[in-house]
Task: inverse folding
């Protein structure tokens, strides 16, 4: 009998959010013998605004999750080069490999990655409530009490009591949970994300270019099923000014803005066929947030969000979940004690900051540079002569920094 069996709690851990961070945390804890409940508000599989790239730093984590073979079978081709599209220029350079890793990163659509993690979690014993939303979260002794409600009219509302709560709900959606942001006043500089898949793109396999254009940035990568994923962010004030034909989607207007201001992209998108509708989300508010608040642990974008310019969002989400699980499991049989909880909070916060704070700050610098045509234009002569700077920048963003041991 564990210490948890003596307490009036329904589960050892409640995970709110079934994306890469939540799915990873739930799977790791369940495999260690914890009883885990995961609440996800959307039905899977579902599409998501996301760059979909996972760097080579994730292969050690895939091995621990027993996902190496499944990811290898499903993901797109290996990405071994980084690129820069600026005006008519297309510059390329090698991507760095993390120490001790011999495989390059690859891209996998979120509808497949998230579903894969959730299925593995269920096989490990995770109780999944989907589609359910967490409506309230309150302290309950040394744990929490959460009210969850079904979405779409199926199922019944219930109350879940958990000793440990992991908030993996992201940062884009507001709500009433103490770890969720309140609605913010609209600002001209707010960033909105767009994404679409294309078949028949001219993007060379193995290349992941950064797209630079006025008041925005983006990226492209070969994902699964022969598709190329195009994702980008654009400022609210620029988006509002884009010309749009009657009935034209905002995504198509953004793509035309890209074609006109970054002509190098035409070789990769002209003649390609879009698969499905454009997705949009936002506003995106990158930055470093709390890793533990109101007695709740935060992972993924809820804890800190990098500008998507560096394509590290999924990696940070999954690796931050691994850091948290590693700290929680390190407490052993005495994990119920307040001192053990304090140690987990300190250890997770410190390790998170060491692993991700510098890359989030670097991403902010890269984003502000990419959105300013004058700054990009001034840098091009140097980048043309020394393309290895792109390799250095990829390393600075975290592509060669190994977190999972």
Result:
């Amino acid at each position: 009998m564990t210490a948890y069996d003596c307490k009036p709690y329904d589960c050892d851990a409640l995970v709110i959010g079934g994306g890469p961070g939540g799915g990873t945390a739930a799977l790791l804890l369940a495999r260690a013998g914890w009883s885990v409940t995961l609440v996800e508000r959307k039905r899977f599989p579902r599409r998501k605004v996301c760059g979909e790239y996972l760097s080579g730093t994730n292969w050690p984590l895939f091995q621990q999750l027993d996902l190496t073979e499944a990811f290898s079978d499903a993901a797109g081709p290996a990405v071994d080069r980084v690129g820069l599209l600026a005006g008519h220029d297309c510059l390329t350079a090698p991507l760095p490999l993390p120490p001790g890793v011999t495989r390059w990163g690859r891209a996998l659509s979120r509808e497949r990655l998230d579903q894969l993690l959730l299925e593995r979690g269920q096989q490990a014993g995770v109780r999944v409530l989907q589609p359910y939303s967490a409506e309230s979260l309150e302290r309950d002794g040394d744990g929490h009490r959460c009210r969850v409600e079904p979405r779409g009219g199926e199922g019944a509302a219930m109350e879940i009591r958990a000793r440990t709560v992991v908030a993996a709900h992201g940062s884009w959606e507001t709500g009433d949970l103490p770890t969720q942001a309140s609605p913010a006043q609209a600002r001209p500089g707010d960033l909105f994300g767009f994404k679409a898949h294309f078949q028949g793109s001219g993007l060379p396999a193995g290349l992941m270019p950064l797209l630079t254009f006025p008041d925005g940035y983006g990226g492209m990568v070969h994902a699964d099923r022969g598709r190329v994923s195009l994702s980008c962010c654009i400022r609210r004030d620029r988006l509002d000014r884009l010309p749009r034909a009657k009935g034209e989607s905002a995504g198509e207007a953004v793509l035309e803005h890209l074609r006109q201001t970054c002509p190098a992209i035409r070789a990769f998108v002209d003649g390609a066929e879009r698969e499905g509708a454009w997705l949009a989300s936002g506003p995106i508010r990158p930055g470093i947030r709390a890793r533990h608040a109101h007695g709740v642990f935060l992972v993924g974008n809820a804890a800190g969000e990098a500008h998507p310019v560096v394509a590290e969002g999924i990696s940070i989400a999954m690796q931050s979940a691994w850091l948290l699980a590693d700290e929680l499991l390190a407490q052993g049989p005495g994990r119920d004690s307040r001192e053990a909880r304090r140690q987990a909070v300190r250890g997770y916060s410190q390790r998170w900051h060491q692993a991700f704070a510098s890359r989030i700050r670097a991403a902010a610098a890269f984003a502000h540079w990419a959105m300013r045509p004058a700054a990009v234009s001034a840098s091009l002569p140097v980048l043309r002569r020394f393309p290895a700077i792109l390799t250095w920048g990829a390393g600075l963003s975290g592509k060669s920094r190994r977190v999972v041991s």
